[in-house]
């Protein structure tokens, strides 16, 4: 969503793409980092198959999604993590919809328990993971809690708290999981998000993505039946029994 040098950003123009709840559901269905064809997107987002192509065209024109042809199908994904950041920020600002059905309750519970925030782990499980890493001194520099009066701990944006860093013990433990060296040895402050359901910190950025990817690869996590949701497997419960209660 580039703007001309020196010009003001056309916020209202791109905001129109978020004004239709069906397009928001399409974006949310893509916000776990997957690339999906239009038919699958329509199913997961609850959008009519006859209209999903039009919604995708609008999202493409605003630079919010990209498309890549593979065989017979075009696969769509979020253009970048900034789009997910906007969705997370809007989720914190928007009023909650009333839960009036068992289906809605099941969906809300699944997303609160564990979900992917773009490609890192969020929800109750993501917060417990971050808290457990702090307890084991793999990460130091904070308590994992949201402090509303802290100017750098904003609810409506990903955080970048300079005090958080990975320790030598943390590097060793994550290396044993198979997390690649490039994200372990950056020497830069760790990124985090203020989780919008738990009001506490979960690990974000390249390290959060790498850890989450490894958990799926190792079988500690599996995709849930609700889009964006995840669940801890029996193997994950065994291997991650140290998670903060």
TrEMBL record:
A GO biological-process term:
response to lead ion
Q: Which domain of life is it from?
A: Bacteria
User: PROSITE patterns of this UniProt entry?
Assistant: HTH_ARSR_2
GO MF entries: cadmium ion sensor activity; DNA binding; DNA-binding transcription factor activity; lead ion binding
Q: Which SMART domains does this entry report, sorted A to Z?
A: HTH_ARSR (SM00418)
Under NCBIfam families, the record lists: HTH_metalloreg
Under PANTHER family, the record lists: TRANSCRIPTIONAL REGULATOR-RELATED, TRANSCRIPTIONAL REGULATORY PROTEIN
The name this protein goes by in its record = Transcriptional regulator, ArsR family
């Amino acid at each position: 969503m580039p703007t001309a040098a020196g010009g003001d950003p056309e916020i209202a123009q791109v905001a129109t793409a978020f004004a239709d709840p069906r397009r928001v559901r399409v974006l949310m269905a893509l916000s776990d980092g997957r690339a999906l064809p239009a038919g699958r997107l329509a199913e997961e987002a609850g959008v009519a198959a006859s209209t999903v192509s039009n919604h995708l065209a609008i999202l493409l024109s605003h630079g919010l999604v990209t498309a890549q042809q593979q065989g017979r199908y075009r696969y769509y994904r979020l253009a970048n993590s900034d789009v997910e950041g906007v969705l997370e920020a809007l989720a914190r600002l928007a009023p909650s919809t009333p839960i009036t059905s068992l289906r809605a309750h099941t969906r809300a519970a699944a997303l609160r328990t564990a979900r992917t925030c773009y490609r890192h782990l969020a929800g109750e499980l993501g917060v417990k993971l971050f808290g457990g890493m702090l307890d084991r001194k793999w990460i130091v520099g904070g308590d994992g809690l949201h402090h509303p009066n802290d100017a750098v701990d904003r609810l409506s944006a990903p955080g970048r708290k300079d005090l958080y860093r990975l320790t030598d013990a943390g590097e060793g433990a994550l290396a044993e999981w198979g997390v690649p060296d490039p994200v372990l040895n950056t020497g830069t402050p760790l990124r985090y998000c203020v989780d919008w359901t738990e009001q506490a910190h979960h690990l974000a950025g390249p390290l959060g993505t790498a850890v989450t990817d490894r958990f799926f690869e190792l079988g500690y996590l599996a995709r849930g039946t609700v889009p964006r949701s995840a669940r801890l497997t029996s193997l994950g419960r065994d291997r991650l029994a140290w998670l903060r209660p």
